[in-house]
UniProtKB/TrEMBL annotation:
Keyword NADP: yes
Family assignment from sequence similarity: Belongs to the aldo/keto reductase family.
InterPro entries: AKR (IPR020471), AKR5G (IPR044500), Aldo/ket_reductase_CS (IPR018170), NAD(P)_OxRdtase_dom_sf (IPR036812), NADP_OxRdtase_dom (IPR023210)
Protein biosynthesis keyword on record: no
Name of the protein this chain belongs to: Aldo/keto reductase
Keywords: NADP, Oxidoreductase
The organism of origin for this protein: Metabacillus rhizosphaerae
Entries under CDD domains matching the protein: AKR_AKR5G1-3
Coiled coil: none
Pfam families (UniProt xref): Aldo_ket_red
Domain NADP-dependent oxidoreductase stretches: 28-263
Gene3D superfamilies xrefs: NADP-dependent oxidoreductase domain
């Protein structure tokens, strides 16, 4: 983990950057275009969007207007809950690709398990088809707990490469992380900064002062040292650059433990067991 281009190798051999830009709640049009362009100019290679974010077109435009070759970028999007099911997922993928203006995708995720609907196994079959057809280089899930993963692993042909979940010092999901490691599933953090809810945390402020870094930088560094891919969101170019300035220091094992101990199993997002929004 030396710089923004450093990668983890997924279990199928595909290299995924440890660090990227998330664009949740970033408006389509100039806001998302400028945000993605600023990230790519700053050296980011990974951009994470989703159908439900409503900004795939802007992400695609920024990619097209950047002077970085497509093969150097790692682009993720996700199928939304209302489109789950085999045929509807394939159609949703086509729609996302049209909006993004891409020939292939690097990572496609099931956005939520949606327990009431219980279609994620069927949806996974569609992702396996897209993967076998070479339209996407890696497939995975988002917001899956251990029991969802266990059910999926019972009869899937392809083991998910990634599980993107809410992950920050107040929600360390240690057991899930361990399960993912055992099954060679890369954990990825959304809302790594808890939507700014950790910036005033005294322990983090103290550690930040020690290293001459911001609390955000300390949290993002903690992610990486825990071997968790992370995708902080920002629309401000200076913040996009600052977030990425985490490769010139290393947290001591003692400080890592201090941050680990902040866990309270506290979510800012929905609990996957009750999230059934379509």
């Amino acid at each position: 983990m030396k710089n923004l281009q450093s990668t983890t190798t997924l279990h199928n051999g595909i290299e995924m950057p440890w660090f990227g830009l998330g664009v949740f709640k970033v408006k389509d049009g100039s806001e998302v275009i400028n945000s993605v362009k600023a990230a790519i100019e700053a050296g980011y290679k990974s951009i994470d969007t989703a159908a439900i974010y409503g900004n795939e077109e802007g992400v695609g435009k920024a990619i097209a207007e950047s002077n970085v070759p497509r093969e150097e970028l790692f682009i993720t999007t996700k199928v939304w809950n209302s489109e789950q099911g085999y045929d509807s997922t394939l159609a949703a993928f086509d729609e996302s690709m049209k909006k993004l203006g891409l020939e292939y995708l690097d990572l496609y995720l099931i956005h939520w398990p949606v327990p009431k609907q219980n279609k994620y196994k069927e949806t996974w079959k569609a992702l396996e088809t897209l993967y076998k057809d070479g339209r996407v280089r890696a497939i995975g899930v988002s917001n899956f707990k251990e029991h969802h993963l266990k059910e999926l692993l019972e009869d899937c042909e392809v083991v998910p490469m990634v599980n993107q979940v809410e992950y920050h010092p107040r929600l360390t999901q240690t057991s899930l992380h361990e399960f993912c490691k055992q099954n060679r599933i890369q954990l990825e953090a959304w809302s790594p900064l808890m939507q700014g809810g950790l910036f005033e945390e005294p322990t983090l402020q103290e550690i930040a002062r020690k290293y001459g870094k911001s609390t955000a930088q300390v949290i993002l560094r903690w992610d990486l040292q825990n071997e968790v891919v992370t995708i902080p969101k920002s629309v401000k170019p200076h913040r996009i650059q600052e977030n990425a300035n985490i490769f010139d220091f290393e947290l001591s094992s003692e400080d890592m433990e201090k941050i680990n101990s902040l866990n309270q199993d506290q979510r800012v997002g929905s609990d996957p067991d009750v999230m059934n929004k379509l």
